[in-house]
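Quick question: what would this complex look like in 3D?
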Amino acid sequence: MIDYASHYLNRFRASLKIDQTIKDGVADELHAHLEDKSRELEEAGLSREEAYKVAVQSLGSPELLAQQVYETHAQGSWKEAFFSALPHFLVALLFASYYWQKAAALAIVLVLTVGIAIYGWQRGKPIWLFPWLGYYLMPVVITGILLLNLPQGWGWIAALIYIPLALFVLIHIMRQTGKRDWLYASLMLAPMPVIFSWFLPLSTGHGLMTSDAWVTRLQTQAPWIVTSFVALAAATIAFIRLKPRKYKIMSLLIPPLVILFAVTWVSRGSINLWGWVILAFSLSAVAVPVWMQARAQS
Amino acid sequence: MNYGRELLKGNTDSLLLCLISREPTYGYKVVKELEKRSNGYFQFKEGTLYPALHRLERENLIEGRWEILPNGQQRRYYYITEKGQQVLAARLATWQDFSTAVKAVMQTETA
């Protein structure tokens, strides 16, 4: 293939953040188009190089074309949007019904989540998979937090061993997801700020994990927790349905900021240093993939 | 914005469906056919065709299939679906009504 064509297709591929199979398919179609057009131009008397140059120009800007193709494929159906939001609605329902204290209900939701996440991962990572994948990762994170409760300093030792392993799993899945699109990694991690903000004691005067006080606090804050998960579900639906990338990014960034505001307001400004560290960490988990995306595009 | 370009933009899907309904075809041929049948009136950036074809495919109005030619070249041929035929029939009927009405009004104006 002449340099003009391969350079054009490389620019197109680099600009298109979409499922690899679709990306390859469109690039192959453009390649066939360029071959047809340049052959015809050569027959009309142009040199091979000129023919490819004209053929490439007739396709228009590769970046603009990639954006148009992205907007065609990036919009999920309403069915996909609701299925993507379903895990958030399920967690909201658990808290609205106070079933979150019943082990059987939690186990059903957990098994359902793990099953659906594995099914989606094996079925080529469809757009609805990523929020489910986020909850699939939650046991990994929560186990790490629970290890801190082991007695007499064992917690910290166990956590020091566990945290690198957990980070390895987390980063591996994030990178796999980021290969397709970093925004999906943010969508996957979107529940993290909500869970960390409401489930961990952020305010002064709370211990790290005191079970009775923790349960009471969660019961008191249940309406806020339900509201947060419903907001997350709404943001997920918006993310799936919106076409332009900038609107998708906005839909991802707005809920954590709203939740941060709500947590600060509920705690009446008494968030301690540990709380701020957790909040910053969980917010950065959502923001980092978006930043990676921006860096990749620049 | 150019009025003719706006009209083309609003009717691209119908034009594509119409061409594909006549015979299964591929991207480059669609461009050539549009140009030929319209006596050169419809000319647009060729790249914009592919997002339009993929949009129609996502709406299940057409279906793309890779085919290998005797010379080894691969092309993606588009076929109209049953749903596509129904949508095209409805759009043609609407277009004919619209065209008749516009013509009636315009002819009165220019008479």
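Answer marked as accepted. The mean pLDDT of chain B is 87.
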